[in-house]
Amino acid sequence: MASDGLVERVRQVYSYVLEESFEPIREPGRIVRVLRERYRLLVDERVVSLVVAAFLAGRPVLFEGPPGTGKTEIGEALLSLWAGKPAFVIPCSENYNEYRVIGDFHPLMAMRHGFSEESFIPRPLLAALVLDAGVLVDEIRRSSEEFQNLLLDVIDKRRIIVPELRTVVRARGEGFQVVFTSNPEDYGQGELSDAFLRRVVRVVFDYPSPEVEVEIVKLRYDVDVPIDDWLVARMAEVAGLLRGRATYKPGPSDTVMWARIAGRLAKLRGHSRVDVRDVVDAASIVLYKRVGEEELVDEAVSRVFGQV
Ligand SMILES: Nc1ncnc2c1ncn2[C@@H]1O[C@H](COP(=O)(O)OP(=O)(O)OP(=O)(O)O)[C@@H](O)[C@H]1O
Ligand SMILES: [Mg+2]
Question: Is 216's C-beta closer than 6 angstroms to any atom of ligand 1?
Fold first, then answer.
């Protein structure tokens, strides 16, 4: 069977990807600007250039680092800009297998039409290959080694075989790239094999400096009650203290949420600017994560903001 029917089927099922396509953006300086303006993501040009270099070499990239540092969102946005169309996201879990990422057959349709294109349901990895789009494989450590090997085989050969359809589908351009994310410190995470690590390039994420964290919070702040820079700087300081002490380490994602909730609280209270009370009250719902660590949070907050 020619692969044309399969290609047509993918285009039909994932028509939104083509409808939402745009001119790819591949120059690092421009990517940095678009990430900031369109995606509200603050990313270092060095990181962007490294990822672009890896894509040019056709190598998948592993983003590794602590939670809430933007790995997933930055990966998805970079892949989308590079390909000029929305990236596919594969959220990993233990029982992920080829049927979930390449495709499977609708049981009733297969009984009626046999294993044919009409009964075939293409899944994200195959769709990305056909549509020349990127794939974000989120939390790769949660998947089995067998699944990782399957992905690496597809990435290396840039083709997928669907035996039931007697079809081979090949990548059509450079848009098909893969970013993996992983957080080695998370609970219940497996190890990545040497074979896996040999094939990917690894970009290490870390918590941003306090200055950058302030920038991130301001970029993401979405309330019409202004929040002063000095307040945000102190919030970043609290987050920094907790990263050194608590088992739940707040990421920039938590600092962003903290500011957004403090802003809304200020608005409900009719304040014209966010004040210390709003920030401290919001801390109690945003930063209290693990039972038994409330005191640690209170301590860090009062150390930075004083007793309120
Ligand atoms: N560099 C950044 N620019 C803008 N926002 C950021 C950045 N880093 C973190 N954030 C904030 O964190 C959120 C995204 O975090 P994301 O889920 O991508 O992180 P992650 O590293 O994948 O975390 P996890 O390990 O928990 O999956 C954003 O919605 C934003 O609020
Ligand atoms: Mg993530």
Answer: yes
